[in-house]
Specification:
Keywords: Antibiotic resistance, ATP-binding, Nucleotide-binding, Transport. InterPro entries: AAA+_ATPase, ABC_transporter-like_ATP-bd, ABC_transporter_ATP-binding, P-loop_NTPase. The protein has 2 domains: about 5-215, P-loop containing nucleotide triphosphate hydrolases (Rossmann fold), CATH 3.40.50.300; about 220-290, 2-Layer Sandwich (Alpha-Beta Plaits), CATH 3.30.70. It is built from 9 helices and 14 strands. The protein has helices at about 45-50, 70-80, 95-105, 110-120, 135-145, 165-180, 190-195, 260-265, 280-290; strands spanning about 5-15, 15-30, 30-35, 60-65, 65, 80, 150-155, 180-185, 200-205, 205-215, 220-230, 240-245, 250-255, 270-275. The protein has a 6-stranded mixed β-sheet, sandwiched between helices. Strands 2-1-4-5 form a 4-stranded antiparallel β-sheet, covered by helices on one side. A hairpin with a 2-residue loop joins strand 4 and strand 5 (about 65). Bound molecules: adenosine-5'-triphosphate. Adenosine-5'-triphosphate binds near residues 17, 18, 37 and 43.
Amino acid sequence: MSLVIETRSLTKSYGKSRGVEDVNLAVERGEVFGFIGPNGAGKSTTIRTLLGFLKPTSGSAKVLGYDVVEESREIHKRIGYLPADVSLYDDMTAGELLDLSARFHDVDGSEKIKELSSRLDLNLSKKFRSLSTGNKKKVGIIQTILHDPDLLIFDEPTSGLDPLVQNTFYEILRNEQGAGKTVFFSSHVLSEVQRLCNRVAIIREGRLVAVEELSEPGAAQYKSVRVRFRDPDVKPEFAGANSMEKTELGYKFMIQGDVNRLLGWLAGHEVEELTIEDPPLEEVFLNFYSGDDKTQGRGV
Ligand SMILES: Nc1ncnc2c1ncn2[C@@H]1O[C@H](COP(=O)(O)OP(=O)(O)OP(=O)(O)O)[C@@H](O)[C@H]1O
């Protein structure tokens, strides 16, 4: 069985309000699969349905070959899941909670707990209640991979983590992928999705709008640029600029690849204001990747 996650016309509505509609996903063994979209798009709803915490209104889904409605217990035994908000027994220390998880899964986790807590800089002797949001998330991350599951599902794993810890988390993910694990994670953060994923699904207003292959993770570095020149007659006629727009505050465009070429070009002009940042996810994927209707392609 090469499909680790498979949904068919998966639909979940919350009474009258939309959750997700007609979602078709196919995640293969060994992939790092990103699931991105704006707030309220339906990422958590999809994930919670895959775990059997929510019952589909219609359609179906399988995880590791098990039906999410009929066989969710089998799924829970075999996967690691990190919810968006980690809440565990407040009165236990981080170390006690992780020992408990290891015992629950009947594994000796002591070495792994020691190694991962030191890599993530987590103090195991503190009560869960007293930990910061980021440190609670670290407990959740260790708990997710402790029992060596074949599939890891993370709901916004890096929100609340500082940049150094985020990098450690990326290394941990790469190790897991190297060990043959499948990773499915939701995110708002374009740069991490580009760095880590083989494929990415974009969800918007409850519907999948694209599934894209990132053949070389990390290769496509898109940046959104806003620039205002001192001389209002100067135009950014820069060869690598895409999606150029003139705004009240100057020009806005996107570039792909090395920013140094742009900086070299800008150095020949008098710049009053400049910002270079990660563009909104949808803009990148819809402008650059989606020429045709990719929802008909592989995996959707
Ligand atoms: N328990 C609920 N009752 C009613 N509507 C809900 C419930 N949970 C989610 N929704 C609605 O379902 C839609 C999808 O929400 P969901 O939490 O899945 O989005 P998300 O992509 O995970 O968002 P975020 O990035 O903000 O976490 C939203 O319109 C939300 O308001």
